[in-house]
Every structure is written in structure tokens, then in C-alpha cells.
Amino acid sequence: MSENLKLVEALEKMGTRARPLPGGVFAAQYLDKERYGFVGKITGVNKEVIEASIRAGALPILTSLAETPAGQILNVNADVAAGELARVLEPLKIVYLNEKNGLYNGETGKKIDVINLDEEYDELLKQPWVKYGTKLKIKEIKELLDHLPRSSSVAIISAGHLHKELFTDSGAGTLIRRGFKLFHHNSLDQLDKDRLRKIMEKEDPEVKSGNISVSSYLHQLESDKAGFKAYGDEPYEVLAVVKNDDGSGSGVPKLDKFVATKAAVLNNVTDNVWALLSKDYSALTWEVDENDANKGWHFDKAEGSFTKNGKTLFWKGLNDVSTIEKVVSNFLEAQKKEAVNAATSGGSFTSGQRRSFSTMKQSNSPFMGGRRMFSTSAASNRDVKKIGLIGARGYTGQELIRLVNNHPSLEISYVSSRELEGKPLEGYTKSPITYVNLSADQVKEKTQSGEVDAWILALPNGVCKPFVDAVESVEEGKKMVLVDLSADYRFTDSWTYGLPEFNRAKIPGATRISNPGCYATGSQLAVHPLLKHLNGSPSIFGVSGYSGAGTKPSPNNDVNHLKDNLIPYSLTNHIHEREVSHHLGHEVNFMPHVAPFFQGITLTVNMPLNKTMTSGDIREIYEAAYENEKLVHVIKGVPLVKENSGKHFARVGGFGVHSSGKRVVVVATIDNLLKGAATQAVQNLNLSLGLGEYTGIPLD
């Protein structure tokens, strides 16, 4: 108990409210009084004591002591006590502290970043280095997670890195989760066709372009005499199809499909599926469009490649030169046939105008497989601004990368993510970039050296300050441009609030820009034109896709929890409620919800009016307010979230007026990842750096 009090005192001295709970939490019976004395087996947990401490704003500090019904104090195993507590509280994450900052592979000596128990548990326990305490710990964690929601996870981390696990989306130690079982089937009857159809319609470029329907593709597989194998995960976030013979006579199996959702890519499910199919197929070929956003991932998996006419042929496991030559020849022959078909049907096909290349191991053969070494084009004379992106793993970071990749005057110098450190940046084609894990001191060095013109902070709330302080500590004369996507500086007067539609004049030349929140942007666009006509507080009913909950697993982005569901959260005092009220200078009431779609926001805004108005009157006010705004579209009907998903502009419409003429309902839709985050950040960067406001932003 004395150690418990020491810990509480230390926390209190550091400004953290803490409450000692030496008893009253665990109930127990003697384990074996004669053999072990005052050692107990936990029989119950009283969570009310813990929840009362949390409600009071104090961190509960427990001891591994329990009480019998008669009031006798017994010692209990601390790990067992933590497990029993977790089963009752069902937390999102359980954190175990160890000195090594995670679990390490006993053969390679490398730290294990992620363990997906459903897929890896049995094989993991067979490893010779998994024994004694390590094996016991993994078994205990599996038993614990088996009784918790699938969104729960365990992190093993050192005390020195605990803040990264609690306050960033990437963590630092070993993350252990149940994950999902992977499947591999060789018959259509074994596949869930509804889920298969859903992922192909959403992610397969050929299906989306109308070149082939899902039904036609399934018929092809059914008619394939050589057979196929399909791979994926249980929720069908990833689907891979390997044809045992591609029909060209090369005898090499072909990876015919590999499609994945954004969430699957960011959570490395694609790597797990790849590892599974690689066990069955040591040799493979596959083709990818030259502009594929995930092309870097394919290069990482391939041992050789050849690009021609906008397509890249990849292969692995082909160590015979003659086989590689045959595969490449078949690839070229297929392109010739496409050209003939395009010509006879009135289409177009350009031959020989694209650069082709092959990757090679140390050999003079132009077709010998090897890891691709990227080349960097000569530097342009354009006035290009260099960008450093901190926090690139999340959905917003990925959208920013895509926007900068297509921006004529912005280039990425550094992209920082702890989880992706050392991996090539996918979807960026201007130059080869590798993820790094920049510390505040390193950001300070890069700022001082002039290697970047602007930093974008795409980090969770509450963790940006060390990076801002690092930049400000070395600024002399001209200041560095910082664009912060968190809420940390949205209420700070020394920072410029970056909502160009209402604050455009203050942004050019600004060096501290707080990017507005997604809900906050849409809400202000919906309310602002009617500010002087309001007679009370607007009520905003907001619904966001689950990408708004980020990539860190939680009930609000758990697709199984969201299925057939609409989840309200933060019913009062949401950060965006305060943000909108602050910047409008008028109080609003905001009620956020999360829905089972991935991307987009819809806002239904009820506003009391101070005079009688018609729908036409109100629409005219909005049309006049946004007449020259390229990223705000005013429409007559009700905007739909599915029609705005993936668009860089917001839509405002509806304009339903009550029969009294004293109340109007306006509907706004916005993509939370684009105009609600990444697009707006680029809009602010453009203005701050003296570029055209809409440069690099698709306007259609």
C-alpha cells in the first residue's frame, strides 16, 4: 500500500489528479490456504469504484490486493488482476509496460510491430524462441482478447514511450490484436459473393471503369479449366485472385486481382494476405496500371518489372532468364492485341511513347529480376516549395500525399510516420521518398538547414506542441510556415484560422495556420450567410463516415459495430461545437454521429429566424455569399453525402422553411478528408506561400 501512495503522490506533484484504491475493487477466495497462505483467486471485480474515480477526474491507482467476503486481505497476481479488470471494463486498449519496449523476434532480434492473433497465434507458438515467460504472456493476452470486443487490443511498450501509445495514432511498441482470419478458397461456392461483389465494385479499377462486370469476372473464373485461388480476410477488406495459368503458355501463375480498401492498406492487412498467397505461389506475375496509387507497394513485393504503354508487369520467383523473356514477350504481345482491338473499335492506343524499363540483379540481361532502384529526375527550374509532412499514416495524410503529388509547385521533402518508418512512400511519383520517424529535434535541424519551406502537422490533438516549439526555437528573421490540422491552435489568437471563405485576407503570408475541423468547416459554411438573420442558436445534426474516427481502432471505426447502426457521441461540448461557436461569434448546438459509410459528412442545420423569410429569399442569400467561391456549391435540392464523397468542394442546399416563415433547415455535405482537412490544408498553403489559391486542387 505504501508504494501505491508513493505513486499517487508523485503523480499529484506532476499535476495529475490521482486517487489511491488499495481495496474495494477485487473480491477473492483463498487459492489454497494451507499451501500458499494469504494468496487469493479473484472471484469478482467492482468496477463502480474505478468509474467513480474517473468521473471525479482522478486517475485510479490500484494495488494487486483483494478481499474475501469476510474482509480478509489477500495477495493476487497482478497480471491476472489486470486481465480480470479488462474483462469487466472492456477497454479499447490494455497497455503492458516492459523495459524492452515490446516483444522481439528471438531469431532476427527485431522488434515485432504487430501480431494478429487470429491468423498468427498457432504458428507463433511453434517458434523455438517463444517459450517460458514470452509464451505465457502471449497465451494470457490471447485469452484476454478472446473475451473482449474485436476492436480491443494490447500494447506492450516501455514507460519512456507510453505517451506515443496514448497520444498518437502509431504507438511505439508491439501491438497485439485479434485481427481477422484470412481465407484461401479454390471454388466460387466457398466465397461470400455479396462481400466479394461489394469490394470489387468499390475498389477494382476494371469494374469501376465499366470494362468488366463482377458477374462476367466470376463467370470467367468458373470457366477457367486451370483453376484459381482466392485470398482475403473475413470482412473482405482485401481480395486477391491467382489464376494457376494465365493462358499465355508461360506456365507461371498470374495474380489476376489484388484489391483492398484504404483501411486494409493502412492496417497492413494487404501484407498479411500477400504473405499467405506467397506460401502457395513461389513464382508469380501480375500487372498494374502505371499510375496506380499503390504502385510502390507492388515494387516492394516484386523482384523484377517492365513498363510499357502505361502498364507495369511485375514478377517474383522467376530466376530463369528464358522464362522472364517469355513472360515479357507475352506481355508485349497482349498489348499489341489491345492496340488492334482499340483501332478496330475506333479507340486509341499509343505505342512506344512511354519510357520502358526493367529491374535487374547483377547481370547484363535486360530481363533478369531484381529489386527496382528508383531514379530521380533532374531538378526543375520551377519555384517549387518543399513540404515536410508529420503524421502521414492516417487517412488525411494519405490524401495530402495525393494532392501534393499532383501539385505543380509543391514537393515532399520529408514524410514522417513511426509505424511506416523505412518503407517507401506509396502514391508519390515525383521522387523516391522513404518514411522516416522525425523527432522534434530532427524537425528543428531540418528547419534550421532550410530543407523545407513549410511543415504540415497531421497529428492527433494535444501532441503538436513539441514540433511547434522546435521550429520556433530556431526561427530567425523569416518564419517557417506551419499548418496544423489538429485542434491545438484553433483558439489561439496568434495563429491564423484557415477558413479561406471567411478569412481569406489574413492567410497570405501567414506562418501559423490552424486548419479548421471537418465538422466545423461544413457547419460554418451552412450557418455563416444567415448570421444576421438568426433569432437563437442553430442546432446542427452531424453524421460522419467512420474515417473521421481515424485509423486507431475504436468502436467508432469498427465496421462490425457500425453495421446497421448510427452512433451518437460527445453529445455536448464537442470540440467542434466550441470551435464553430467561437469563430462565428454565435453559439451553436452540435450533435455528432458516426455512420457505417467510410467517407463524407452530412449536416442538417435547424436555424430560428428573426424575421419571416421564404425558401427563395434564403437561397438567394447563400448564392450571393458563395457566388465566387470555387469550393462551395449552392444547390436547390438536398445535397447527398454519397454525391460529395471524394469531391474537394462542399455543397449547401435544402433551404426548407417552416410554414411560419421563422425557421429554416439547411443541409450541407462535405468530404471530411478533403475540404474538411487535406484540400483545405493545400488551399491554406497556396495562399500562405504566394501560390494560386486553387493550384493543385481538382475543382470538378
Percent helix: 25-40%
Q: Give the total of beta strands.
A: 30
* Strand order across the largest sheet: 25-26-24-27-30-29-28
Mean of all residue-level pLDDT scores = 86
Q: Biggest β-sheet, characterized?
A: 7 strands, mixed
Task: Assign the structural class, choosing from mainly alpha, mainly beta, alpha/beta, alpha+beta, or little secondary structure.
Answer: alpha/beta
Low-confidence stretches: 347-382
Number of helices: 24
| Radius of gyration, whole Å | 29 Å
Percent strand? 15-25%
Broad shape: globular
Q: Tell me the distance between the termini.
A: 66 Å
List the helices and strands and how they pair.
Elements: H1 2-13, E1 18-21, E2 26-30, H2 33-36, E3 40-45, H3 47-55, E4 59-62, E5 65-67, E6 73-75, H4 78-89, E7 93-97, E8 114-116, H5 117-125, H6 132-145, E9 153-157, H7 162-167, E10 174-177, E11 182-185, H8 193-203, H9 205-209, H10 214-223, E12 228-233, E13 238-243, E14 254-260, H11 262-266, H12 269-280, E15 284-289, H13 295-301, E16 304-308, E17 311-316, H14 321-344, E18 385-390, H15 395-405, E19 410-416, H16 440-449, E20 454-457, H17 465-472, E21 481-484, E22 496-497, H18 500-503, E23 512-514, H19 518-527, E24 539-544, H20 559-562, E25 567-568, H21 575-584, E26 589-594, E27 601-608, H22 615-625, E28 632-634, H23 641-644, E29 650-657, E30 663-670, H24 674-688
Parallel strand pairs: 1-4, 2-5, 7-9, 8-10, 18-19, 18-20, 20-21, 21-23, 22-23, 24-26, 28-29
Antiparallel strand pairs: 2-3, 5-6, 9-10, 11-12, 12-13, 13-14, 15-17, 16-17, 24-27, 25-26, 27-30, 29-30
Helix pairs in contact: 15-24, 16-17, 19-21
